[in-house]
UniProtKB/TrEMBL annotation:
GO terms for molecular function: 2 iron, 2 sulfur cluster binding; metal ion binding; oxidoreductase activity. Keywords: 2Fe-2S, Iron, Iron-sulfur, Metal-binding, Oxidoreductase. The keyword Ligase does not apply. This is Rieske (2Fe-2S) protein. Residues 13-117 form the Rieske domain. The keyword Electron transport does not apply. CDD domains: RHO_alpha_C_DMO-like (cd08878). InterPro entries: Cholesterol_7-desaturase, Rieske_2Fe-2S, Rieske_2Fe-2S_sf, VanA_C_cat.
């Protein structure tokens, strides 16, 4: 079986949207895990996620409108729903509302400037929301653009991509890696729900993004990439650059999130934002805001213009050759560990569901 055919892990938190993209008074239509949803804020500002389907004639609620009192009015015949998904007004006839006239509402929690959704049937557990504290206001980090990119590949191929950053030397040659960053010490370890893959590279020419964040003199550097995965697909990348022969605490680098939510089996919402870290780093000639904007553009270019076409074409080949298994290399140790951990969680979840369904 190839990964696109596998079930989703459901009893976990997926990023549904950046909090800032849920604007009061507007509807955000978004498909997650093959389910079309409509997201909005209630009058108290709480984020809400409902199935995007009216129970009357199954019209999409995204074509309706939010009323000033916070109700969502279906755009077809005007039934009104509250934030729990209950129909609370039928403007027709006697106004009677049957008990099953309701829409499924999903638990949605805002944390780390993202709205996280729970799409499983088990009770939601907020302790399972992955940690991305650097995104929090007041964290001391100056976070750049909070970007959302639609990748035209299954989310598990994006996990493989992120958890083996050796590809930066080839697919992002000059920007995030180069020929000198191919040899690297790779270390993998697990702590609790997190799997970490660390690559250290010594005395190498800095790729463009590293040079921009460091001394901007093109001199050889030592670099690390330390990337952390947790299920189902939340990734934090900690990168740093320091001068050979100096203390690695005297570094300049970046924290970046790469949080993936399946849209469908073939497409993925990719939530990403980066912040500079470390005591070093040249004061940019163009100013901090201009540098942040430039880095956000370079990151989007790497993910959308370089990773996405490769993953899309890779997915087409995998679909075309369903019986062919990949020939794995030493660099695949991180992705393999993560995919196995995810497989085990999905299998355990399916086992619990089967036991619950048993007579
Ligand atoms: S389809 Fe929504 S009110 Fe008729
Ligand atoms: Fe990449």
């Amino acid at each position: 079986m190839e990964v696109g055919d596998m079930a989703y892990l459901r009893n976990c938190w997926y990023a549904a949207a950046w909090s800032e993209d849920l604007q009061p008074g507007s509807l955000l239509a978004r498909t997650l895990l093959d389910e079309p949803l409509v997201l909005f804020r209630d009058p108290a500002g709480r984020a809400v996620a409902l199935d995007d389907m009216c129970p009357h004639r199954l019209a999409p609620l995204r074509l309706g409108r939010l009323l000033p009192d916070g109700r969502l009015q279906c755009g077809y015949h005007g039934l009104e729903f509250d934030a729990t998904g209950q129909c609370v007004r039928n403007p027709h006839g006697s106004g009677r509302i049957s008990r099953n006239c309701r829409v499924r509402a999903y638990p949605l929690v805002e944390r780390h400037t993202l709205a996280w959704i729970w799409m499983g049937d088990e009770p939601p557990d907020e302790d399972l929301i992955p940690e991305f504290a650097y995104l929090d206001p007041g964290s001391g980090h100056d976070v750049g653009r909070r970007d959302t990119i639609l990748m035209r590949a299954n989310y598990r191929y994006v996990v493989d991509n992120l958890m083996d950053l050796s590809h930066a030397s080839f697919l992002h040659d000059g920007l995030l890696g180069n020929a000198e960053t191919v040899p690297a010490e790779i270390k993998v370890h697990q702590d609790g729900p997190y799997i970490h893959v660390r690559r250290d590279m010594y005395n190498v020419q800095p790729p463009l993004l590293r040079d921009l964040l460091f001394k901007r003199d093109g001199a050889a550097v030592n670099m690390w990439q330390s990337i952390r995965w947790s299920a189902p697909a939340a990734v934090l990348n900690d990168v740093g650059t320091y001068a050979p022969g100096t203390d690695r605490e005297e570094f300049s680098g970046q924290l970046g999130c790469h949080i993936l939510t399946p849209e469908t089996a073939d497409t993925t919402h990719y939530f990403t934002a980066a912040a500079r870290q470390g005591p070093l780093g040249a004061v940019p000639d163009e100013g901090e805001e201009a540098l942040k904007a430039r880095i956000a553009e370079l990151r989007r270019h790497a993910f959308k213009d370089q990773d996405d076409p490769m993953l899309t074409a890779q997915q087409e080949n995998i679909r075309r050759h369903p019986g062919v298994s990949p020939v794995l290399l030493e660099i695949d140790i991180g992705p393999v560990r993560c995919q196995r951990a995810l497989d085990a969680l999905i299998a355990a979840e399916q086992q619990r569901a089967a036991e619950d369904a048993a007579p």
